[in-house]
Amino acid sequence: MATQYASRLVVALAAASALVLTSPSQAQAGAAGSTPVQTFEYTVGGATMKIPTGCMFSHIIRGDGKKITYQNAGVDCAFIGALSSGFCNWRIDFTYADTNNKTYKTSRGATHSECKIDPMRNNSPQTLPRYGKACAHLHVNGVQRASQCHHITK
Description:
Largest sheet: 5 strands, antiparallel
Shape: elongated
Strand content: over 45%
Mean pLDDT: 82
Number of helices: 1
Helix content: 10-25%
Low-confidence stretches: 1-27
CATH class: Mainly Beta
C-alpha cells in the first residue's frame, strides 16, 4: 500500500513538473540599483535633523520593453543610519526621459510631513511612449538628495 502511494505521488509530481516546464511564460526584464544617500543636515520646525552615512536609495523596475509592470523606490538604512530620526517632509518622484535625455514625463509623489526612516513609493504600471530611461528621485524638505536611473531599451 505504501509503495502504491509513493508511486502515485511520484507520477503526480512528474506530471506537475512537466506542466510547469512546458507552460508558456511571458518574457520579463527588470533592473534594480541603489545609490548611497550622502550625509546631510536640514531644519524642520527649528530642529536640526542629520542623516548620517549608512542609507541607500534603491529603485526597482520590472517589465518588457516600454511596458513597465512594477516600479518601486525607497530608502534602506543600516548601522548608524538606522538610528537617525529619519527623513521628514519627503517625497519620491519618478521621471522618464527619451534617448536624448529629455524628460517628457514626471510622476510627482506626495510630500509626506511625517518623519520616516524608510520612505518608499510604488508607481502604477504603464506603457512608455519612447525608449530612454526611468529614474527615481528622493526629495527631503524640498531638496533632491538622491537619484537612481535605469535605461529602457529594446
